[in-house]
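Format notes (please read before filing issues)

Several people have asked whether sequences and structure tokens are stored in separate files. They are not. Every record keeps both together, in the order shown below: the sequence lines, then the token lines. Line labels are part of the format and must not be stripped during preprocessing.
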Amino acid sequence: MCTIAGFPSRSSLRARLVATVLIFSVGGNAVAETLNFDNAPVGMPPEGWTLTMTGKGEPKWTVEAEPSAPSKPNVLKQSGRATFPVAIRRDTAIRNGFVEVKFKAVSGSEDRAAGIIWRARDADNYYVVRANALEDNVVLYKTIKGIRTSLGIVGRKGGYGVSAPVTSGQWHVLRCDFAGGRFKVSYDGKPIFEVEDATIVDAGMIGLWTKADSVTLFDDLTYGEIK
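Then the structure lines:
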């Protein structure tokens, strides 16, 4: 990863931006942005997002100070309760590209999950891959008209996602690279499975996701489009 020459300093960015944005090249054919929420007001929802849910409930998305944040001082925290709390970045429209986030599952007795969304039309239609600290697995779904369906893994018959250690109270990295109907999922820097699906083919928004009573922290949300 390399920053563009002449990119302003962190102190300059904090003075000018709601969320720090880093621009860099990816494989020579994509441009990516990283949002770390460091200049957003603490205790408030971040600007530029639709903070909502799939289903019912009362989600709560706020920027909070967090000593353990990978990019200090702030994170985006979901601490409400809903069927699926959803945060959608409104100014994105990506068909082929990637989305990646660092997350920490803090608590939740019904669920303890963190997810990333892509090709979202709205809060009821999108793809999502999530990691779950209560189940220790990573699963990819499509959500169509508010109904979530898990998708099968390429080269395997049956099953439900893949097992992976999702330790509560620790930071992890979740990523999906998507092009056409092929989705490649990586967890903590390692590719773990691929999925094929052609339900949503148009460009859409990216975002973040949790489930039920999950209290989850997010930082360094990175996304980009393949040109």
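For reference, the curators noted about this record: The two ends are 17 Å apart (CA to CA). The domain at 42-218 is CATH 2.60.120.560 (Jelly Rolls).
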